[in-house]
Amino acid sequence: MSNKKRILLIACGGTIACTTDATGVAKQSLSGEQLVNNISQLADYAEIETVQFRQINSSSITLNDALELMKLINSTEHDGYVITHGTDSIEETAFTLDLIHSSSKPIVLTGAMRHASLPSADGNANILAAAITAADAKSADQGVMVVLNDTVHAARFVTKAHTSRPDAFISKPGGAIGWLSENRLVMITRLQRRQLFNPEDLRHPDLVNISNVPIITSYSGDDGKLLKLISDSKQFHGLIIDGLGGGHVSELMAEQIDIATNELIVVITSRTGEGSTLQETYGNIGSEIDLINKGVIMAGWLNATQARILLQLSLVAGLDKHAIEHKFLI
After folding, report:
1. Superfamily name with CATH number, domain 5-187
2. In what order do the strands lie in the sheet with 151-154?
3. Residues 83, 65: contact at Cβ < 8 Å?
């Protein structure tokens, strides 16, 4: 009887599933089974089974898709999971899964920056590295990870930082937690696993509408008209404002925020990309003290995309503003 780990590869589409058609345009054509069959070395490290979950561009992946993906994972008895996924939103799916993942089993997302018809295609190497990571005992209790370019990223830190290079993904502020060397996993950091939501609490009957949370990027001199349109529409339950500096907005935007917080849960992030939103330094109109007094939630070190996902899940779970504020203390 084999002592190799049983790994389920769940295929979602993306560049990793693309080849060029007769016109030279890259289109999704490879199934999960075809991806696995193209990599003979996989059998040396794990017993791989496959399931085709989606075959779509990752820009079209929804919160409901991520919840269904976790439901699929929780319905199986494998030792670990590899998810092939488009890189455009791989960090969003990974972050969502990390917030609801309840077991010690590793979940590893991977993709490709160069499709299979290119001479420098990276998909096969990334799948092999992801499978090795998912099958390694060192990956237990590390939550959800993203593995590309022989680098292991934690879902809570990973971000796509380049449009097309194979080394497009980085981790900030924490840095990568490991890498692959000679097809061996090296883990240099162990994170405390977290689960902020129970998947069973995320079954709101109006999930599509209640989880519709837009993001507004703030800029100098913003007149707040877009925020007013969103607030006046009465179509949204929450909003992310990607603020300047430590989480600041213009005075006109602050006026609209004061009105919007009567209708919406408003969360402020920083568009700088690193560091935490401030809490108690500046008292000008539109600065953090003023905005907190107006009823906003400061997102801390989460970026706008992460804050949006956390707010989406909080709204779907039916949490009140106080409970949502507590979630943002991660």
Report:
1. L-asparaginase, N-terminal domain (3.40.50.1170)
2. 46-52, 5-11, 80-84, 107-110, 144-148, 151-154, 178-181, 184-187
3. no
Ramachandran angles phi, psi of 104, nearest 5°? -85, -5
Taking the whole predicted model, whether its pTM rises above 0.85 is answered as: yes
Spatial neighbors of 326 by CB under 8 A, at least 6 apart, are none
Secondary-structure breakdown of the chain: helix, strand, coil percentages, each rounded to the nearest 5: 35, 20, 45
Run of H or E including 158: strand 158-160
Beta bridge partners of 146: 109, 153
Question: What is the distance between the alpha carbons of residues 254 and 87, in angstroms, rounded to a whole number?
Answer: 35
Structural domain boundaries in the chain? 5-187, 206-327
CB 300 within 8 A of CB 329: yes
Which is it for strands 18-20 and 46-52: parallel, antiparallel or unpaired?
Answer: unpaired
CATH hierarchy code of domain 206-327: 3.40.50.40
Question: Shortest CA distance to 261 belongs to which of 243, 241, 284, 287?
Answer: 241
Side chain identity at residue 22, one-letter code = A
Please name the amino acid found at residue 69.
Answer: L
pLDDT tens digits, residue range 150-176?
999 999 999 999 999 999 999 998 899
| Fold equal for 5-187 and 206-327 | yes
Q: Are 283 and 314 in contact (CB under 8 A)?
A: no
Segments of the chain with pLDDT less than 70: 1-2
Q: Which two tokens stand for residue 143?
A: 């939550």
C-alpha distance from residue 125 to each of 38, 58, 106, 114, 130 (Å): 11, 20, 19, 11, 9
CA gap 146, 78 in Å, rounded: 19
Residues 6+ apart with CB under 8 A from 126: 16, 110, 111, 112, 147, 148, 149
The pLDDT score that the predictor gives to residue 210 is 87
CA pair distance 90, 84, nearest whole angstrom: 9
